[in-house]
Amino acid sequence: MGWSSPGGRLRASPGYMFSGWFNTVITDEFIDSVRANNSVDAGDSFSFDGLVDRGEVRL
């Protein structure tokens, strides 16, 4: 669902977004795992979610 101006040049649409990253490694964990020669459990995951709004201008 969204809104568009009568001429169609301006548009806005709200929504909900979920983004997830899996097997991410921070620098300190990576360096420690290389030094220990053990990459097991070096990864982690994190996510973002929430309301978003998209705005568009067509020229």
Care to describe what's here?
The mean pLDDT is 88. Helices cover 17% and strands 53% of the residues. A three-stranded antiparallel sheet has the order 1-2-3, with no helix packed on it. The protein is of the alpha+beta class and 59 residues long. It has one domain.
User: Mean pLDDT score, rounded?
Assistant: 88
What would you report as the Rg, rounded to the nearest angstrom?
21 Å
Instruction: Indicate the proportion of strand residues.
Output: over 45%
Q: What is the count of DSSP helices, taking H or I runs of 4+ residues?
A: 1
Work out the count of structural domains: 1
- Helix/strand class: alpha+beta
Give the secondary structure arrangement, pairings included.
Layout: E1 3-4, E2 10-24, H1 27-36, E3 44-57
Antiparallel strand pairs: 1-2, 2-3
Any descriptors?
59 residues, single chain, alpha+beta, three-stranded antiparallel sheet, 3 strands
In short:
This protein has one domain (3-57). 17% of the residues lie in helices and 53% in strands. The protein contains 1 helix and 3 strands; from the N terminus they run E-E-H-E.
